[in-house]
Amino acid sequence: MADRHPLLDRHGEALDLFGDRVHAVRDDQWGADTPCTDWSVRDLVNHLVSEQLWVAPMVRDGATVDFVGDAFDGDVLGLDPAASWDTAARGARAAFAAPDALERTVHLSFGDTAGRDYCTQLTTDLLVHAWDLSRAIGADEQLPDDLVDFAMREVTPYAAELEKSGLFAAPVQPPPGAYVQTKLLCLLGRRP
């Protein structure tokens, strides 16, 4: 499609990357630790599935956090986590691809946000958590350069505020000569 926004391609690429890692999880790895403090592999995937489930009501329907309530709290993975991921990812992809979705106002917990900004935040979150999941299951930890560059541009302007949110660990000093991926991960409190 000629007028397709490039952000949709980045988002789709991040969904696919995380989905590939979800499908690589072996049955004996769901309880394994991840780089995310207090989260197992199952907890991490559950977080990302829940996050994708929020997209349709928030973007497509214009719902508020209060309206959605606790609909996506708890275990949303059921007996087949990979299938649950696939369903949630399809819904998020479709919601953002709808006409004018990126221009809509999304009513997030911290305030109204442009759909474009919401999609950007989720793309970055998918990318970083793909690394977390890769590390936890022993998969390839190399992230696509275009997504790493995209996320670095997105995160850098507000990086100092991330730790204050309580959702990110303190930044880690990257080693001298670190590649952009390592710098991004260190900025987000990871120890690559």
Automatic annotation (TrEMBL):
Matching Pfam families: MDMPI_N (PF11716)
An annotated Gene Ontology molecular function: metal ion binding
Boundaries of every Mycothiol-dependent maleylpyruvate isomerase metal-binding domain copy: 14-133
SUPFAM superfamilies cross-referenced by the UniProt entry: DinB/YfiT-like putative metalloenzymes
InterPro entries given in the database record: CHP03086, DinB/YfiT-like, Maleyloyr_isom, MDMPI_metal-binding
The protein's name: TIGR03086 family metal-binding protein
Organism: Streptomyces sp. R21
